[in-house]
Structures are given as C-alpha cells and as structure tokens.
C-alpha cells in the first residue's frame, strides 16, 4: 500500500497476500479462514490506541497463520503469473516515472515489503518496472523441485519489524555504500525504521501515505513523518522531490 494503490473508485486494491485469494490457488475453506484472520488482525495493525510493542505478537500470529494456510494449499509457482494478471492490483499513478527515473539516474531502490516477494516482483514485472536497480526484501516462497510451495524462506517480515530486517539484510549491500541520503516512503509507522540499515545517514526525508482511519491516525503520522499524504493514490509528491534533487545535482 506504498508502491501499490490502497483503493480505486472506492474499492480496496489487493495487497500481495490478497492477490493469492484466487480460487485458482486456494480452496473456499482457506479463503474463509484468511478473511477471518484479516478481519481479526487488521484492526489491530491500524489501532491508534495501541503501541507497536502491543501489536507485535498479534502481527507475528497473523503472518504465521496466513503463511501456514498458504503452505497447506500447495500453491504452484507457475500460477502466480495468472493470479497477478487476474487481480485488480494497481501501482500508484505516476509509478512509471518514479521507477524509470531512479533507474535512469542509477539510484538504488530498496523495497521492504511485509507482503510476498514473489508476488510483488511479478506485479512490478507485469508493469514493466522491475529494473536492475531494485532490491526487494520480503517474505519469499520456497518451492520444491516440482514448483509447489513447501515453506517460506528466512526471517518473517511483518509490518513492525522492518527496521530489524533492514539492519540485518541491507547493511552489506554494495548499492548502499557511499549513499547517506534516503527518501523513505511508507504507509505505516513501522516503515519509519526502514533506513536503519544505512551507515552514517546524513539526510533522511520521510513521506507517509495515510490511507485508512485518517482522523484517528493523522496526529501520529504528522508527528512522525516529514510529509504526510492523506488518501493520495499517486506518486506525484515523490516524483516532484526526485526531479528537484536530480535537477540540482545535474546543474552543479
């Protein structure tokens, strides 16, 4: 819900997990259980009256239970393309300029996603923006030799542990070396820690997309992000900032 839209014409746009809610991949019973998990835990994720520490065990339970259900369905890797194609997932308006500009200027784009990396990559691939400068840190599926889901790889990534993951998985990346300036985009307060893996940061400009429960969460977002975009389904502001930064650099 940062690179992708939150909604379109009043209808929620699916996350990478929800994209898999396709009868091609999941049984009716599994779909019902996944909806029940979402209805139970999503209100906790966005609850303005709970601390991050209070939310953590609930997020771990939600993600673990969701992944167990997906594994039980023995999802086939070759069906992910079709699941993305048949979904109504949409990247934010202006996404192509955002992705292409960063690629053309050789600026690394690190994507920290609590979703499913295989699905996110396919979304970017189908929109023709999965460029070589992109490095995705996410929950990746582990398929057996026949292409059937058998597990999820590595450390679980949920909404509120991205800082911990950022430190462990990005500190040694070559594309991070000598780059102390960060434009950080996120839709959750948990996203504010994504730059924790940057060595000796000099400038970090944070932009928060406030998509849901606006009035309840506006104060905490304004107090935490440098810029808050309310129900904005575009990349207009990040694109303007990028253009200005890169123009100033080119003029030197």
Number of discrete helical segments? 9
Rg computed from alpha carbons, rounded to a whole number of angstroms? 18 Å
Structural class: alpha/beta
Strand order of the largest sheet: 7-8-9
Largest sheet: 3 strands, parallel
Stretches with pLDDT under 50, minimum 5 residues: none
Share in helix: 40-55%
Q: Which overall shape is indicated by the principal axes computed on the Cα atoms?
A: globular
How far apart are the termini?
Answer: 36 Å
Strand content: 15-25%
Calculate the mean pLDDT score and round it: 94
Number of strands: 9
Strand and helix order:
EEHHHHHEHEEEHEEHEH
How would you briefly describe this protein structure?
The chain has about 250 residues and is an alpha/beta fold.
């Amino acid at each position: 819900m940062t690179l992708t839209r939150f909604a379109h014409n009043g209808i929620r746009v699916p996350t990478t997990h929800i994209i898999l809610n396709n009868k091609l991949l999941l049984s009716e019973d599994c779909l019902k259980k996944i909806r029940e998990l979402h209805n139970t835990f999503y209100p906790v994720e966005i609850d303005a009256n709970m601390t991050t520490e209070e939310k953590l065990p609930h997020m771990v339970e939600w993600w673990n239970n969701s992944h167990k259900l997906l594994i039980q369905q023995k999802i086939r890797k070759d069906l992910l393309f079709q699941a993305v194609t048949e979904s109504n997932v949409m990247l934010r308006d202006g996404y192509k300029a955002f992705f292409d500009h960063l690629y053309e200027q050789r600026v690394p784009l690190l994507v920290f996603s609590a979703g499913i990396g295989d699905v996110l990559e396919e979304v970017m691939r189908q929109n023709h923006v999965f460029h070589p400068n992109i490095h995705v840190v996410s929950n990746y599926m582990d398929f057996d030799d026949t292409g059937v889901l058998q597990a999820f790889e590595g450390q679980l990534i949920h909404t509120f542990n991205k800082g911990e993951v950022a430190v462990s998985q990005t500190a040694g990346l070559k594309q991070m070396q000598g780059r102390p300036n960060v434009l950080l985009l996120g839709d959750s307060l948990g996203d504010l820690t994504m730059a924790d893996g940057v060595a000796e940061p000099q400038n970090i400009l944070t932009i928060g997309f406030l998509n849901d429960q606006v009035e309840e969460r506006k104060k905490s977002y304004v107090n935490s992000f440098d810029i808050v975009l309310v129900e904005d389904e575009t990349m207009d502001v990040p694109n303007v900032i990028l253009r200005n930064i890169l123009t100033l650099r080119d003029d030197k």
